[in-house]
C-alpha cells in the first residue's frame, strides 16, 4: 500500500455577496434572527450563467497554479456536486475539458454536504493500491439555483462556491495518517431533499439534532480507529452549516475554540464545497504546519456523513 498526501488546495467564490440586510428585503426575517440561529452574515451567489462547472474550473485553475502540477499529470478527477450543470455529461467531464486534464478519468459523485469526504475516501482507494498517482477533487455547488427565494426556512442558509485539492501518492511507504470513514442512511431521505427536482425542502430542526449526534459519533469513531485523542488534532474543520452545530460539536468533543476553523459567517452553507473552502482559507492564513493532524467532519442530505483525519 502506498502513502498519500494532500499537496495543494484552492477555491473560488462568486463576486456577488448577499447579506442578511439584503435578505430582510426579500423574506420575513431579520439579521438578528439569522445571526443568532445560524451565525451566517453573508453568502456568495453565482451569476445567472455561472454554472457549477464554471466555478469548478476556476477553483481547479487556482489549485493547479498553487501546486505546480501540470494538467496532464492529473489521472483522476472526482467532482462532488448536488447541483450539476445538467443530467449528463457529468460536471466532472465539463471541468476535465475546461482544465485540460487530458489524461484523467473524470466522474461525479452525489453525497450532498458530505461530498468532499466521500471524494477523499474514493481517491484514497485508487491511490493507496497504486492505480493512479495524482488525483484532483473539486467540490462545486450552485445552491442558489435550487433555493426557493420565498422560503425563509432555507434561503438564508446556503451559498455558492467551489474548492478542492490535489492528492498525490507517495512513492515510499509512509506512516502518515490518511483515514476516512463514510456512512449513509436513506431512511431519512425526506428530511433534506430536492423532492421536485426544483427546490430544497428541509425539516431543519430534526436535521439539526441528527447532524450533531451523527458527527459527534463519527468523529469519536475515527479518532479511536486512528489511536488518537482530540489533543492530537491541530485543526478541526467541520462542515460549515450552522455556527450552533459547530459549537455544539466542539463542546461535545472538548476541542478548544481556537482549534476549530469557522467561516460559515461569510459563506453560509456551500454544501460539498464548505470543507475545502475552509481548508484552503486556513492554509492561506498560515494556520497549518507540516505534520499537523487535521480532522474533517460533514453531514448532509441522504443522510450522508463522514469524517477524515489527515496529516499535512
Ligand atoms: O448541511 C446539511 C445539514 N443542514 C443543516 O445542518 C441545517 C440544520 N438546521 C438548522 O441549521 C436549523 O434548524 C435552522 C437554522 C434551519 C433553523 O433553526 P431552529 O432553531 O431549528 O429553528 P426552527 O426551525 O425550530 O424555527 C424556529 C422559529 C419558527 O417559528 P415558530 O414556529 O417558532 O413560530 C420558524 O418559523 O423560527 C422561524 N423561522 C424564522 N424566523 C425568522 C424560520 N426561519 C426563519 C427566518 N427568519 N429566516
Describe the structure.
The protein has 312 residues and is α/β, with parallel strands linked by helices. The protein is built from ten helices and 13 strands. 33% of the residues lie in helices and 25% in strands. The protein has two domains: 3-170, Thiolase/Chalcone synthase (Peroxisomal Thiolase, Chain A, domain 1, 3-Layer(aba) Sandwich); 178-311, 3-Layer(aba) Sandwich (Peroxisomal Thiolase, Chain A, domain 1). The protein has helices at 20-24, 31-38, 52-67, 91-99, 115-128, 152-155, 204-225, 243-253, 264-267, 274-284; strands at 3-12, 16-19, 42-45, 76-80, 105-109, 134-141, 161-170, 178-184, 192-193, 201-202, 235-238, 293-300, 304-311. The radius of gyration is 18 Å and the shape is globular. The strands form four sheets. The chain has a five-stranded mixed sheet with strand order 1-7-6-4-5, with helices on both faces. Strands 8-13-12-11 form a four-stranded mixed sheet, with helices on both faces. A two-stranded antiparallel sheet has the order 2-3. Residues 29, 33, 37-38, 113, 152-153, 156, 204-205, 207-208, 211, 241-242, 245, 269, 299-300 line the site of oxa(dethia)-CoA (UT7).
Amino acid at each position: 500500500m502506498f502513502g498519500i498526501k494532500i499537496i495543494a488546495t484552492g477555491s473560488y467564490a462568486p463576486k456577488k455577496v448577499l447579506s442578511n440586510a439584503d435578505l430582510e428585503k426579500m423574506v420575513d426575517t431579520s439579521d438578528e434572527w439569522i445571526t443568532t440561529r445560524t451565525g451566517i452574515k453573508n453568502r456568495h451567489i453565482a451569476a445567472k450563467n455561472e454554472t457549477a462547472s464554471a466555478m469548478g474550473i476556476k477553483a481547479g485553475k487556482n489549485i493547479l497554479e498553487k501546486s505546480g502540477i501540470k494538467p496532464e499529470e492529473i489521472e483522476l478527477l472526482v467532482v462532488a456536486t448536488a447541483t450539476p450543470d445538467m443530467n449528463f455529461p457529468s460536471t466532472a467531464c465539463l471541468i476535465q475539458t475546461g482544465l485540460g486534464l487530458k489524461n484523467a478519468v473524470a466522474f461525479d459523485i452525489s453525497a450532498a454536504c458530505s461530498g468532499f469526504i466521500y471524494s477523499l475516501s474514493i481517491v484514497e482507494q485508487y491511490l493507496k493500491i497504486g492505480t493512479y498517482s495524482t488525483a484532483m477533487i473539486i467540490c462545486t455547488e450552485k445552491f442558489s439555483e435550487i433555493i426557493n427565494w420565498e422560503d425563509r426556512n432555507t434561503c438564508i442558509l446556503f451559498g455558492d462556491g467551489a474548492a478542492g485539492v490535489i492528492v498525490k501518492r507517495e512513492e515510499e511507504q509512509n506512516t502518515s495518517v490518511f483515514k476516512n470513514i463514510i456512512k449513509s442512511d436513506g431512511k431519512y431521505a425526506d428530511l433534506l431533499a430536492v423532492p421536485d427536482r426544483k427546490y430544497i425542502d428541509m425539516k431543519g430542526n430534526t436535521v439539526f439534532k441528527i447532524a450533531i449526534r451523527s458527527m459527534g459519533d463519527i468523529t469519536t469513531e475515527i479518532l479511536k480507529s486512528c489511536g488518537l485523542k482530540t489533543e492530537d488534532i491541530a485543526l478541526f474543520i467541520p462542515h460549515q452549516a450552522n455556527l450552533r452545530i459547530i459549537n455544539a460539536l466542539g463542546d461535545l468533543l472538548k476541542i478548544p475554540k481556537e482549534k476549530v476553523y469557522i467561516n460559515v459567517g461569510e459563506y453560509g452553507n456551500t454544501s460539498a464545497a464548505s470543507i475545502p473552502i475552509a481548508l484552503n482559507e486556513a492554509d492561506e492564513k498560515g494556520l497549518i504546519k507540516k505534520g499537523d493532524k487535521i480532522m474533517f467532519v460533514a453531514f448532509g442530505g441522504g443522510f450522508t456523513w463522514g469524517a477524515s483525519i489527515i496529516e499535512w
